[in-house]
Amino acid sequence: MRPTLALIKREFTAYFFSPIGFVTLAVFLLVTGRLFGVTMNLLTEPGPRGTEFPMQSLLGDEKFWLVFLFIPPLLTMRLLAEERGSGTLESLMTAPIRDWQVVAGKYIACLMFYVVLWLPTLAYLPVLLDMDPQTWQPRIDCWPVLTSYLGAFLAGAMFLAIGLFVSSLVKSQLVAAMIAMLLSLVFVVAAFWRPDYDTGSLTTKLVTFISVPEHFRRDFTRGILDTRHIVLYATITLLCLFLTVRSLEARRLR
Amino acid sequence: MIVVENLYKYYGEYPAVRGVSFEVPKGRVVGFLGPNGAGKSTTMRILAGYLTATSGKASIDGRDVFWDPIEARRRIGYMPESCPLYTDMKVTEYLKFRAGLKGLGWGTRRKRVEYVLERCWLKDVRKQIVGTLSKGYRQRVGLADSLLADPPVLILDEPTAGLDPTQIRETRKLIRELGQQHTMLLSTHILSEVEAACDSVIIIYQGQVAAEGSLAAVRDRYGNQNLEDIFVRLTGQEGVYSASASPGDQPGLYIGR
């Protein structure tokens, strides 16, 4: 336990030593802030235009996911690739720490920083929930917000696990980030051809099954928890973490 | 303390270590010599648990490095070649992190970090960022790291590579002092260092042990030459390995005659 905690602490604080953490945070907040402004406009629109689900215009938006695509790979790219590149992996792997503890420590650290990314967005909630200024009670249904945050956490966990696995395979951070983006693209880009599909076809079913933006647009941001999405995210997360442990083990056998 | 039996390591088709066996008794300081590419680093990495041997056995204090890796690693302070460190941390920060990684509790962590800072003359750079340190200081940080958990065995891969003469002298002095408390296996290219600091030597060439024994015994076997001549004789000639292929002949013994 102690080695894992020490590793989590070191990896988490390392995000604040390098500019990459702050740059990611700034970009993320710029985009969510801009989308919050758009949502605000829709909410205060006087005419027939407006929005039924404010979270949908925030997280169900393609622009958000195109930017989001870059964020997990930027957080995970250095985790193992940097250690391999600079040779510090040797001192890490010869310490009395098990391979799965190394993976767990690094993964938990990047997951924690990912949560930190989302924390400032809690400031939008009083408006999105139309909270009563006196009693702090939300005046509209709060479930879409809760499910959206849960969805964002689980989907992020999946993208981070993919990034960590890729990072364990290569020596260069840049290559790690690019391959991780490519793999994440599979889960993001399918949704962008949405209008071209016949809604009853197998392709549509497949696309809606793996496309994370679609999950958000149709389910999470409307307060629906679909177990299929959660199972998909959880299995891919576990698979990637398992593969990362194996890839570290395989390194010893070279 | 360190027992290696018939160790083999193949990198793909290439055999880096072929049938190395030796033993380092408790309290001994052993110099591990050999030309570049002879298999020194590979052997040390197997002992430290970074690589897995293709076949053969290695154990530290009775703990097999393959079957009981965590317990074996707990008993080793290992300093890798060229001493990689996290360059973005401060010296004390780095050492505290390493102490945590080695499972030391909060109280002992602070005590041990203070002790190794003192021991490796790092007190005046304790607040400095590792990336800004000179090569000599970095090497000392690596050495301090290997001492953190107070392991009975130290495995140091070229601890004096790339240092200037003053730093080499200081490091050598430190190694000699540490040799009184720890069993030590240290690889180096500086032969005078071995003569100054080690009790015995293991010379390895093309993945096999070419000579092994106490300094005096090895010298005696080769007609009282100095270590450098013996080293060159054992490892400088192309014929050595092919000669050893004849059955029953140890390469070192063959050349000695």
SSE ordering of chain B = EEEHEEHEHHHEHEHEEHHHH
Query: Percent range for helical residues of chain B?
Result: 25-40%
Query: How many strands in all of chain A?
Result: 0
Name the biggest interface: A-B, 25 and 31 residues
User: Largest beta sheet of chain B: what is the strand line-up?
Assistant: 6-7-8-3-9-10
CATH topology-level fold name of the largest domain in chain B? Rossmann fold
Number of helices of chain A: 13
Mean pLDDT of chain A: 89
Write the CATH homologous superfamily of the largest domain in chain B: P-loop containing nucleotide triphosphate hydrolases
- Tell me the number of structural domains of chain A: 1
Percentage of residues in DSSP E strands of chain B: 15-25%
Instruction: Tell me what the CATH architecture of the largest domain in chain B is.
Output: 3-Layer(aba) Sandwich
Provide mean pLDDT of chain B, rounded: 85
Broad CATH class of the largest domain in chain B: Alpha Beta
Q: What is the number of helices of chain B?
A: 11
Domain ABC transporter (chain B): 2-231
Protein name (chain B): Multidrug ABC transporter ATP-binding protein
Family (chain B): Belongs to the ABC transporter superfamily.
Pfam families (chain B): ABC_tran (PF00005)
